[in-house]
Amino acid sequence: MDKQLMFVDGSVNTIRNIGYGAYLSVSEHELSIDSLKSRVQVKRFEDTSSTKLELQTLLWALTEVCETNKKLVVYTDSQNIIGLPGRRSDLERTGYRSGKNKLLNNHELYRQFYDIVDMLDPHLMKVPGHQPSGQRDVMGQLFSLVDRASRQALRAAYV
Q1: What is the pLDDT of residues 94-116, one digit of tens each?
Q2: Which of the four pLDDT bands, split at 50, 70 and 90, describes residue 2?
Q3: Among candidate residues 144, 125, 146, the one with its CA nearest the CA of residue 41
Q4: N or C: which end of the chain has fewer CB within 10 A?
């Protein structure tokens, strides 16, 4: 089965609560960095935070690409996203509530995440964020395309 590789990242202005998410989706056979730069997709999100933006970006990317006939591997630097599968049973058991019985801020996004994970069964891979370019492997180089695109979009919005 062919693999579809997806790279997702976001950059947020925490004062204005506005961020930009970026993703790149490629087949495992098309890994030429230069030819893929133009395929990075970027979207603006409002009323967001860094944790929320990472989830919003991933959900947007998964619904845009949504190919169920390929094995999907998602690369992210978000520890929250990487940890969500392991938190699922506790979150569902508590009804997405905190120890003080308050609904978690991102409960709706968590529910959406689990719904789409059930449908697409992606493999989540942690990428070290913001590595020096000389230390990046191919996946790190591809991830840097979305990292750079989201940061540039955020900077451009406030120039």
Answers
A1: 999 999 999 999 999 999 999 99
A2: confident
A3: 146
A4: C
**C-alpha to C-alpha distances, 99 to 61, 84, 96, 103, 153, nearest whole angstrom:** 31, 17, 10, 10, 37
Q: From 15, 96, 10, select the one nearest 61 (Cα to Cα).
A: 10
Q: What topology does CATH give the domain 3-157?
A: Nucleotidyltransferase; domain 5 (3.30.420)
DSSP letters spanning 12-70: EETTTTEEEEEEEEEETT---HHHHGGG-EEEEEES--HHHHHHHHHHHHHHHH--TTS
- Distance CA(25)–CA(36), nearest Å, equals 9
CB 77 within 8 A of CB 129: yes
Per-domain residue ranges of the chain: 3-157
